[in-house]
């Protein structure tokens, strides 16, 4: 429960490496993005300001061929969000609309709130059993170092609203896909099947979900007034920002390092994903410290990741004709790298494992690699080599998609460990003349 | 940063006592108040519901002479709170009006926001220097086991708005008097000198205050739109709830144990002060476990503490003609008791120290005793004996007066340690036939 700042010493003590003197670049980027831009929802005027800021920043840092690459998206424009339990006792809930929620009238919708302890329990409810009612979907997500809970429990957010709608619910509330105990809801996009009519769908904070569960346990019917007035809008402007540190041999395919520039609107996008852009960019620069790298390193600060990976899709469409050598992404906060997974030429992989070993980073025992949402489309299209530097996610879902995603949550010591781990990898792959293919 | 729930094991390990089987009474009270009543702002309809709930609960627990003792107060009725930085970049702030804030129009007031790093810096600003401007008052409160930071840094909230108003400011924002790093502002009452015209006064969360400080450091003028539409209202209904466990000798003056029933409206009043009512009430009952105590124990669940200690004043007015033997209060959360301070007959004090020693509770090295806001007026009027069971306040000001003051923040193991420490003290003082006076 102690604030992050006070746990820096303990967290930094996890890092067995001799401290590298930080050059301040990573902190400067994430501090600038969160302070001078702030929240930057996909498709918004703020995301456009973020692109302008990013182009200037990358140029100032010495990147070449820096440009924004525009595209348009179907986005979500937030309105006013509120939820109030009206029976058996009045209690206000801390709520956020999910991205692509259906809209309520300004005064909201009111009805009985039917409690389900799990997504499976909702699935088992009879079709048509929600006439005039709303569903509440609870779950039991716990923290995990590798973030394993976000798959199954995140499905409550991704799938739950559509399932409730298919059974006739007039609205849905979920326990946030989060592991903290603060009155800050976790937003995020939900999915609707083609042709389905969206219903109002919101997430309440974990303490509010626990309150709903206790009220439901009293055995009296619950009622709720839910007002979520945001709208889904087509044709909103978005875009990626790319820049390069040219290599000594421009004929070799480049190394692509990605992150996303957009953020949810509740916080200021520090850990998700200002930190990722800070890490990959600072490492690309530091990898030149011993001399210009052999291969070009291209950074991709993608737009509109949060609403469906639109930036990654746009990048692949725009650049599929250019060969790439390898792609990596940082999009899991700012806490330390603890594990490396790879799909790469074995001899190169062995050198990476050896370089990361003194930093306490261990090889993954799984053959699965992820790449990340913003680079996955180009990885899939070109069957690229991939290195995953897995970060410690124990507290990631305390902050993810909440108002609490702010600069103070970033531990400078762990941010620096990320930059150094990325630098070690980039120094190897960007100076490898041979094929990186597995 | 880990949520409270996950740190129970670590916190419980601090408790050297052999675990007592909890009777569940304390948890039942604080769970009931937060779930079945919820927030209960002084003077509100919710506080009235809390009184009705409390009368029923105390009767059900076996207390006698249970009644509400009504009085009226000058209260604060919250409106809509919002704050938005508009320059140098748009950034929304998480804000709460302070109690007794002046009201803005619905659209708010707009002006330059002048940053002061400390209350002293504001005091040094020239009179009349705020024409059309608002003040931002920052500070550097840190956590302390004995809560020492709340005195000096809490003065930013108590005194800062009136000082800014005296220099012509049209509004004021402060860094919350808090030690957490969540986007949850800490509300609380502010004070206006007799005859002063209140100005709009709000507190922003600690991460937002840090953002304002970083924006101010950019060197460009800040502008803000502040809307705080709540109102100060006279003649609102409030009241205390009292109940007794009669002693074997009704001629002996009773032991008074206090807490407060009202809470701020942002959270549900779990640690402030549902836990206090839970602790004193459960301990009063458990002190009868070896047989009816010699002296009557009277519980006081005071109303309207948060707005100025109105319940304690009303209790003293109503009961000053009745002799009391000793008064104690619990109003510092639910974390473990670590120290005892006393003003009491020395022989009785020695027995209390000996009884608490096996629980890791040490005697205070200070001669100061506090009693607590709700019992201070009767202590002062009758020069009563006092026992202070000091709780660990290290994380108290992470939660105090915030939306995060919810049931999940209470560690059952530490709550139980409180009940047992109080029981040890009450068994001694309520069975002492001689004078308790120091």
Describe this structure in words.
The structure is a homodimer of 438-residue chains. With 438 residues, chain A is an alpha/beta fold. Chain A has two domains: 8-74 and 234-429, Zn peptidases (Aminopeptidase), CATH 3.40.630.10; 79-229, Glucose Oxidase, domain 1. Chain A has twelve helices and 16 strands. Chain A has helices at 4-12, 25-37, 45-60, 119-123, 150-166, 206-217, 270-286, 310-319, 346-356, 376-382, 396-399, 412-429; strands at 64-77, 81-87, 91-93, 95-97, 109-116, 133-137, 171-175, 201-204, 222-228, 231-245, 255-260, 297-302, 326-329, 337-343, 362-363, 385-391. The longest helix of chain A is centred in the C-terminal third of the chain and has 18 residues, at 412-429. The radius of gyration of chain A is 22 Å and the shape is elongated. The model of chain A is unreliable at 1-14 and 16-20 (pLDDT under 50). The interface between A and B is large, with 47 and 47 residues.
CATH topology of the largest domain in chain A: Aminopeptidase
Query: Radius of gyration of chain A from the CA trace?
Result: 22 Å
* SS class of chain A: alpha/beta
Shape of chain A: elongated
* CATH class category of the largest domain in chain A: Alpha Beta
Domain count of chain A: the total is 2
Task: Give the total of beta strands of chain A.
Answer: 16
Identify the strand order in the major beta sheet of chain A. Answer: 1-10-12-11-13-16-14-15
Strand composition percent of chain A: 15-25%
Greatest chain-chain contact: A-B, 47 and 47 residues
Judging by the overall fold, what is the CATH architecture of the largest domain in chain A?
3-Layer(aba) Sandwich
Alpha plus pi helix count of chain A: 12
Largest sheet of chain A: 8 strands, mixed
Main location (chains A, B): endoplasmic reticulum
Protein name (chains A, B): Carboxypeptidase Q
Subunit structure (chains A, B): Homodimer. The monomeric form is inactive while the homodimer is active.
Keywords (chains A, B): Carboxypeptidase, Endoplasmic reticulum, Glycoprotein, Golgi apparatus, Hydrolase, Lysosome, Metal-binding, Metalloprotease, Protease, Secreted, Signal, Zinc, Zymogen
């Amino acid at each position: 429960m102690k604030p992050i700042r006070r746990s820096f010493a303990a967290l930094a003590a996890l890092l067995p490496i001799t401290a590298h003197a930080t050059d301040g670049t990573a902190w400067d980027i994430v501090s600038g993005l969160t302070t001078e831009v702030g929240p930057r929802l996909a498709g918004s005027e703020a995301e456009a300001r973020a692109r302008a800021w990013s182009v200037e920043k990358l140029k100032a840092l010495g990147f070449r061929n820096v440009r924004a690459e525009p595209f348009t998206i179907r986005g979500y424009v937030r309105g006013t969000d509120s939820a109030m339990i009206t029976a058996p006792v009045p209690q206000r809930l801390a709520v956020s609309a999910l991205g692509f929620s259906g809209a309520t009238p300004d005064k909201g919708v009111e009805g009985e709130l039917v409690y389900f302890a799990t997504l499976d329990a909702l699935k088992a409810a009879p079709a048509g059993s929600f006439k005039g009612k709303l569903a509440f979907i609870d779950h039991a997500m716990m923290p995990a170092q590798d973030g394993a809970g976000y798959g199954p429990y995140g499905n409550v957010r991704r799938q739950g609203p559509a399932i409730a709608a298919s059974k006739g619910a007039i609205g849905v509330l979920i326990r946030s896909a989060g592991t903290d105990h603060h009155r800050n809801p976790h937003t995020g996009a939900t999915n609707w099947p083609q042709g389905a009519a969206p219903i109002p769908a919101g997430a309440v904070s974990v303490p509010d979900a626990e309150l709903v569960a206790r009220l439901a346990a009293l055995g009296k019917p619950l009622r709720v007034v839910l007002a979520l007035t945001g709208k889904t809008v087509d044709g909103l402007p978005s875009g990626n920002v790319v820049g390069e540190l040219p290599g000594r041999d421009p004929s070799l395919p480049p190394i692509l390092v990605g992150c996303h520039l957009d953020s949810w609107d509740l916080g200021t996008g520090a850990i998700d994903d200002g930190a990722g852009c800070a890490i990959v960019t600072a490492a690309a620069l530091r990898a030149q410290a011993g001399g210009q790298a052999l291969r070009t390193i291209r950074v991709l600060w993608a737009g509109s990741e949060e609403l469906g990976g639109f930036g990654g899709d746009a990048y692949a469409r725009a650049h599929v004709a250019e060969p790439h050598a390898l792609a990596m992404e940082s999009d899991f906060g700012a806490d330390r790298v603890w594990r490396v997974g790879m799909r790469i030429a074995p001899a190169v992989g062995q050198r990476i494992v050896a370089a990361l070993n003194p930093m306490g980073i261990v090889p993954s025992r799984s053959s699965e690699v992820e790449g990340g949402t913003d680079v996955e489309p180009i990885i899939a299209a070109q069957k690229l080599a991939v290195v995953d530097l897995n970060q410690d996610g124990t507290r990631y879902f305390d902050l993810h998609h909440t108002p609490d995603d702010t600069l103070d949550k970033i531990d400078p010591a762990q941010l620096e460990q990320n930059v150094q781990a990325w630098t070690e990898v980039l120094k190897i792959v960007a100076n490898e003349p041979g094929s990186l293919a597995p």
